[in-house]
Inverse folding.
């Protein structure tokens, strides 16, 4: 009898071994040397100072925004709003390759498909394997030569620490900044910088940023909403290598047979073509704006986390010959059938409610948005 | 080759030499000479042929419709193999594995040949191992049959050229072919856990059809559970969870994370159900 029981021993031992292995893997590496204590200002300074130029890693993003149900987007829907809404729902995993500011490749890994964004210098390619389309964008020169903050303000004597201290002092009135227990992200020890709104009037409960203990590189961001156990939004590296990726990765040529689209950036339609023709920076910036832009400019009420952004009703500003026809603007968004489906009717208009952001579209065409309860948006709308 | 003939062979061989070599060789020949195994492999090879012929005679496929890569086949024949592998993953491959793995022990018991096999000093553990290796050999052969038949028919009916990966990068046909073989290897690994489950179920019964059906039902059930968002905590533990992860082999650079997670998961299933099969088979009263 005993020998019969002995024969079942391996079957009992295997789950025990697996469970032990899983437990050992999930226990944070507390044996690791704890990071030296730092104040919030020092951790902020680390972020400002970090000089990580090259990395390759995998990002996991999860969001529990409690978005309204949007029907699955078919291939007929353009690359505009649909894919953005899609990116905000459910989990996503993306590989990120960076080598300096001008060489970036992001691969959003879908099931049996992939969406790529490849930037090499001024060239930006967007590729979608599902419908085999490639979109080419020529970036304006300014973006390509984005300089580190230090060179942008010559004569500045502020060290990153001082800058961080000033920033901290500025946000301190609205936000409590603390450094929590060390965390481990992608196998690296990191400081956990926690921002907690001092106001009760916001939907945001806290924002936590994991800052690499060695390099100062932010490794994860987690936003929690009030009254929700799961983080509303979380993006974190699951693996990270701080070495330059293969240079060939940034050299993208659209595959044969792909549909190629050329996208001209809105706002600066002539910048790429006739660089010598503009007369001055001030005038140049104004040219690309649609005529109604000034009247459409948003206004902000409230401060800090309670801010409400409001867009006035659209005065009839015909976008004649606007170069940004394919780009979703506020106006396009308002008439988007997808958006109409996503809204619910509330007193005073229609609303989109998520756990982090509420948007109110009033019946007279104004838009109010903020990280505040819907009632506050309605009150703001009624106040005008 | 009949079962009695084979039993006599193995019994004789095993008495002469204590190694498992002859027993294994006999098991493999028996497995692949069996009409049923050949029919299963032929049915698997028919999938890419069917796809290729349908695409060849029909008009162009609009992108984004049907199984992944279907629209690329007309441009590149090598995609036939990949498309067929994708089509075969959820049902056809588990079906054939279920038949082979479910038959391992229960088949011998059903034929009444199991006790003769055990008369030889081969031992029950060795028999179990040999039976499992036989099932593994089929796990290697099945995806390979799909991939090779796909590459063959694709090359015959369509042009073969550089292949566009999911990332939009283009690789030469040679590398594309090796990536297809990698996908076949990935699927072999994917099916190892299911084979171990089939082996265990096969030790429970003397009716081979019962073990086969139970294995196939489990594979479908696992995939259904994997679709339920309410059971998210369970998903990484389902043996079918990484079955579609082979897409990472079609990215540039190749992502090996899903391959390693899949291998570890399948290893766990092999250990657990192998141990269960051992416990059951060693303590079982073999009457037939």
């Amino acid at each position: 009898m005993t020998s019969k029981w002995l024969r079942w021993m391996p079957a009992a031992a295997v789950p025990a071994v697996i469970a032990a292995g899983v437990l050992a893997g999930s226990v944070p590496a507390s044996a690791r040397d704890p990071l030296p204590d730092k104040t919030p200002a020092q951790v902020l300074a680390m972020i400002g100072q970090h000089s990580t130029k090259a990395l390759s890693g995998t990002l996991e993003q999860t969001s529990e925004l409690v978005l309204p149900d949007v029907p699955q987007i078919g291939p007929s829907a353009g690359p505009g709003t649909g894919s953005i809404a899609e990116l905000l729902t459910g989990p996503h995993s993306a590989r990120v390759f960076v080598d300096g500011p001008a060489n970036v490749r992001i691969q959003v890994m879908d099931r049996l498909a992939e969406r790529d964004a490849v930037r090499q210098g001024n060239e930006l390619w967007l590729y979608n394997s599902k419908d085999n389309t490639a979109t080419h964008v020529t970036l304006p020169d300014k973006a390509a030569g984005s300089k580190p903050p230090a060179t942008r303000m010559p004569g500045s004597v502020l060290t990153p620490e001082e800058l961080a201290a000033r920033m901290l002092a500025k946000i301190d009135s609205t936000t409590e900044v603390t450094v929590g227990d060390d965390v481990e992200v992608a196998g690296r020890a990191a400081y956990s910088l926690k921002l907690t709104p001092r106001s009760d009037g916001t939907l945001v409960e806290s924002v936590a940023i994991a800052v690499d203990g060695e390099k100062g590189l932010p490794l994860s961001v987690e936003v929690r909403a009030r009254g929700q156990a799961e983080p509303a939004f979380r993006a974190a590296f699951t693996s990270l290598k701080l070495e330059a990726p293969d240079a060939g990765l940034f050299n993208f040529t659209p595959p044969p047979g792909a549909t190629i689209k050329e996208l001209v950036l809105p706002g600066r339609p002539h910048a790429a073509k006739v660089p010598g023709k503009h007369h001055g920076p001030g005038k140049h910036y104004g040219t690309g704006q649609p005529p109604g832009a000034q009247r459409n400019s948003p206004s902000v009420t409230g401060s800090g986390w309670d801010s409400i952004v409001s867009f006035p009703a659209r005065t009839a500003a015909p976008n004649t010959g606007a170069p940004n026809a394919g780009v979703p603007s506020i106006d396009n968004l308002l008439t988007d059938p997808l958006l109409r489906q996503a809204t619910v009717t509330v007193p005073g208009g229609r609303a989109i409610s998520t756990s982090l952001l509420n948007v109110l579209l009033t019946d007279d065409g104004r838009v109010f948005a903020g990280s505040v309860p819907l009632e506050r948006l309605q009150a703001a709308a009624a106040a005008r | 080759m009949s079962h009695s003939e084979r039993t006599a062979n193995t019994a004789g061989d095993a008495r002469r030499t204590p190694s498992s070599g002859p027993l294994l060789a006999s098991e493999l020949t028996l497995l692949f000479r069996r009409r049923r195994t050949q029919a299963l492999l032929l049915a698997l090879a028919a999938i890419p042929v069917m796809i290729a012929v349908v695409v060849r005679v029909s008009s162009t496929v609009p992108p984004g419709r049907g199984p992944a890569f279907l629209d690329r086949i007309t441009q590149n024949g090598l995609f036939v193999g990949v498309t067929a592998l994708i089509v075969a993953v959820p049902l056809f491959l588990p079906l054939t594995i279920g038949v082979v793995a479910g038959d391992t022990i229960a088949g011998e018991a059903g034929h009444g040949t199991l006790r003769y096999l055990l008369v030889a000093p081969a031992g029950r553990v060795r028999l179990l191992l040999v039976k499992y290796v036989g099932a593994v050999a089929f796990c290697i052969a099945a995806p390979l049959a799909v991939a090779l038949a796909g590459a063959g028919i694709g090359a015959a009916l369509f042009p073969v050229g550089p292949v566009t990966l999911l990332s939009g990068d283009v690789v030469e046909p040679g590398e594309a072919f090796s990536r297809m073989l990698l996908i076949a290897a990935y699927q072999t690994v994917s099916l190892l856990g299911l084979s171990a489950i089939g082996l265990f179920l096969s030790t429970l019964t003397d009716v081979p059809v019962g073990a086969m059906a139970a294995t196939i039902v489990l594979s479908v059930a696992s995939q259904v559970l994997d679709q339920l968002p309410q059971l998210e905590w369970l998903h990484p533990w389902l043996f079918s969870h990484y079955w579609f992860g082979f897409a990472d082999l079609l990215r540039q650079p190749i992502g090996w994370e899903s391959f390693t997670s899949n291998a570890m998961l399948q290893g766990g299933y092999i250990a657990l159900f192998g141990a269960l099969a051992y416990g059951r088979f060693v303590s079982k009263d073999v009457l037939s």
User: Anything to note?
Assistant: The CA atoms of residues 173 and 220 of chain A lie 25 Å apart. Residues 40-241 of chain A form a domain with the outer membrane lipoprotein receptor (LolB), chain A fold (CATH 2.50.20.10).
